[in-house]
Amino acid sequence: MKNQLARVLRQKNLMYFVYLIIFLAVLSTVFVTDGSLSQGIVTYKYFWFATSICIVSILLPFQLFSPQKIHVTDVLFIVFAIYVSINYLCLNNTPSMRLWLFLMMFPLYVTIRAVFTNEKMQRWLLVVILAIVMVQAIWGLLQLYGFVRSHHSLYKITGTFFNPGPYSGFVAVGVPLALGYSLDKTISHYERWLGFTTLFVAFWVLPVTMSRAAWIAAIAGCMPVLWLTYSTLIKIHLKKVSSQVTIVAIFCLLFTGAYYLKKDSADGRRVIWSASLEAVKECPLFGAGYGRFAAVYGDSQTSYFLKKERSPDQIMIADSPEYAFNEYVQITVELGIVGLVLFLLLIGSCFFNFQFSIFNSSLLAFLIFAAFSYPFSVLPLCILFVFLLALSAPTSKKLSFAMSMWLCVVGVAICLCVSVCGAYKILPKYPDYREWHYLQIFYHMGIYEKTVDDYKTLFPQLRHQKQFLFEYAQCLSKTEQYTESNRIFEEYLLYGSDPMVYNCMGNNFKEMGDYAKAESMYVRASQIVPNRHYPLYLLMKLYHETGQAEKAKAMAYTLLNKPVKVQSTAIREMQLEANQIIEN
Predict the structure, then answer these.
(1) How far is it, in rounded angstroms, from Cα 230 to Cα 232?
(2) What stretch of H or E contains 425?
(3) Which residues contact 19 (CB under 8 A, 6 or more apart)?
(4) Which range marks the domain in which residue 504 is found?
(5) N or C terminus of the chain: which is more exposed, having fewer CB within 10 Å?
(6) What sign has the CA pseudo-torsion 156, 160, 162, 166?
(7) For position 511, which CATH number holds?
(8) Residues near 294 by Cβ (< 8 Å), separated by ≥ 6?
(9) 452 and 134 in contact (C-beta within 8 Å)?
(10) Based on the domain organization, do 506 and 404 belong to the same domain?
(11) Is this model's pTM higher than 0.85 or not?
């Protein structure tokens, strides 16, 4: 009997070890890049993740066919996933890679909940997460001192991300875990040193990233850990009025300093949030559609600046962002109030736990970072969020009920179906991204005639990629296929609202002799981002070349009197041409 029991335990430990290796592969998505792909720092992560999730799902039946319990958080996660899928299919029509990546988070969540049911397994997973955060932090330090190349020409530190924002968020979310692990006296000396080392390296690299959102998230996430560890001592100090005043003063200084450190950036985000409310007013309940923030933001900002006169400062800092820099605002725009409520219920259920853990603290840091950044648009951060959500979910019997065997079978079938379908839709695109990278070499060299047909071949596979659509439309325009070029630009406008697209469409209409439509495109571009000079310059040129002398002169005066956001050679050339039109 003892030998049989030992054999069962060895088999179970072996299975747990296999799961740890697989989840290490999933979390290692953050490290993978491929320079042979277009945007390989981002896109190769999609293919790695899709492959690793397939492996996870294959092993899922071995765990889920045993007795399982489902909790409130699990139900809310399922409801939210179903709502997002229906919202996308109803408002976006055709599934894209973004939707498949989101759906593949479902088998990942289910597997984590099914496997890591005991404290020992969770502790080993915590070691894996801490090790990855530590490596990422060291990677940033190596970039800082010139040992490793950065992935962005403007920033010295990016880690294995495309810019410092997501990188700093990834490291900051790991800080509460590292602090909790280093203060835990129930674990081994070596494990505590892992926590100390990760904490030390993270606090070394975070200030250099200049990410205020990451700083605030790291500090806020550490507060519950310190409270749980030193609650008695903290309560004694909080009874003193002087201590309360000191704490409030410190927080006020921190937030004020963070604001004035990059004041224009902070004010710019306030403009984004205010303009986003215009989109919410258009579709308050169900939103504009999952993944469509960038597409509807142009109309929202146009409406925001046209409805009433805004201050010159607001006009000067306006831009055309891809994200809301606040996930709660972006969720409301894309999924409506219904989606926001479901999401808040989901994350709220994780904090109604009878035993607050360091995973909750790390999840709190993530949620605070999400209020100032765009982590749900970055795959490695989405993966980390799913891990934290699954590990923070309640385990109390009061909030759970047993699953029947047929429900487990259905769950396994859905997970396998989602994984297989997602991999089938994502993995075959790998050679297309490689071919696109090859074509971009000729595109940037201005060799459009030899590449336009190849872009056309790739169009069915990459039609959801905005950058691809822009390049393809430009190739068509440069080869004088103006009508087809505008058709592709209209496809682009389903996913983004960059004013440069309207400028290019206006140029196409101008070449076709449709000057009224060209004018409307230029006006539209100038309204989306009212501080831009180029749309006004194009309008001035259009009026001048079509013999509308008075309009051309008036637009030249407008161009010259317009405040300059960033002085450049292009601005000076436009102003020089405006002066020539006035003089002539």
Answers:
(1) 6
(2) helix 405-426
(3) 59, 63, 111, 115
(4) 429-583
(5) N
(6) negative
(7) 1.25.40.10
(8) 321, 322, 323, 466, 495, 496, 497
(9) no
(10) no
(11) yes
Question: Same structural domain for residues 46 and 194?
Answer: yes
Same domain? For 423 and 433 the reply is no
Please, which residues have CB within 8 angstroms of residue 131's CB and are 6 or more apart in sequence?
194, 198
- Return per-residue pLDDT of the chain as tens, 584 residues: 445 544 544 455 677 777 788 888 899 999 998 888 888 888 999 999 999 998 888 777 666 555 567 788 888 999 999 999 998 888 776 667 888 999 999 999 988 888 877 777 888 888 899 999 999 999 999 998 888 888 887 888 998 998 898 999 999 999 999 998 888 777 777 878 888 899 999 989 998 888 888 988 998 888 888 877 776 555 555 555 555 566 566 667 666 666 666 776 777 788 899 889 988 988 889 988 898 898 899 889 888 888 887 888 888 888 888 898 999 999 999 999 999 999 999 998 888 765 567 888 899 999 999 999 999 999 999 999 999 999 888 766 666 666 667 777 787 888 888 888 988 999 999 999 999 999 999 999 888 888 999 999 999 999 889 999 999 999 999 998 999 999 999 999 988 888 999 999 999 999 998 999 999 999 999 888 888 889 999 999 999 888 888 888 999 899 888 888 878 888 888 889 888 888 87
Cβ-Cβ contacts under 8 Å for 200 (sequence gap 6 or more): none
Tally of domains within the chain: 2
Strand 400-402 versus strand 69-71 pairing type? antiparallel
**What's the rounded Cα separation, in Å, for the pair 262 and 259?**
6
| Together in a domain, 417 and 525 | no
Query: Which residue among 427, 456, 473 closes a domain?
Result: 427
Last residue of a domain, one of 368, 399, 427: 427
